[in-house]
Specification:
18 helices, mainly alpha, about 375 residues, single chain
Length: about 375
Amino acid sequence: MTSSTPHPGPGGPRTPARSPFFDNAKFMLIVLVALGHSWEEIITPHTPGLRALHNLVYCFHMPAFILLSGYFSRTFTARPDQVRRLLGGVLVPYLVFETIYSFVYHWTRGTDLAITPTSPTFLCWFLLALFLWRITTPIWHAVRHPLALAVVISLGAGTTAVGGEMALSRVLMFLPWFVLGLRLRPEHFARLRSRAARALAVPVVAGALALAYWLSPDPSDDWLSSDAGNTVLHVSLVRYLLLRLALFAVTALLVAAFFALVPGRRMWLTAFGAVTLYPYLLHGIVLRVVEHYGFFRTVRAAGLPGQLVLSAAVVAMVALLSTRPVRAVLWPLVEPRLPGRFAARTEVPAPPAAPTEAVAREKTLAR
């Protein structure tokens, strides 16, 4: 997510003009991702308010981010140049940070040091999922009723024995949000930015937060992270399908409310929205390190003041990890260049010439 890539993941279309609205949305979503990861470290049975806020955020923040990934993948047709950008901008960073996080987890949590690229560690799953979603984009443009098909696949993944390899459970269960993004157009977002939509968004979010507080500690993280089927959740097949459909509806409402509340003007956070891959990949390392040194224990003991300080610190951390000095040092890891020797010098074949009138007549007679 460099300044030249107006989308949540590399490998997609590039345009010189950027929309402050989308950059603002991306930065806000990255902040919510980091807040969610930090809040889960301090949630206890005595923090129902924080648990409700966590569940509210987890209900929509990844679907919204995945939807944007789909939206900016609309023109991906698997051209050689697009595939090269996808490899260099998504797959290579995934392999780099999967290796880094393996070492980080070995140091901070004492796990076995094993580099397993087919089993993503922590937040690395999203890069692998993004690679798989985007490479299949031409398929979703080719089939009829792609969104309905994606919903069926998502529900089916939760009722079958889909393993955790290649983040496949999340790839399939979150798939409808990517496909929905592929189907959206600028005018859809324009409708959400109307005054009426903004007015409706506030009570929607407030009502959802009240509902989350009333249901707390439910729903469990397994429902919201979309990586568990009905057997893991210990619910019947029918109950699972009904609850997933209800969750789709609630999430769609919250995603729409979020985009309605995103400011469309250029602000201090707009520039940071162009480089969200940096804070996304780096904030997890910071969280694991401070966890290792007992920071979260101190925050839990501090109660509400600790929660507020932690939340403010996380927002500042995301902004800091988006700054130019950080990018200047870490771009070889976050935005590595695909070596030129791996780039095939292929030319796009010219379309075949139109048949002459005589050839066309012969084909007609031969039928």
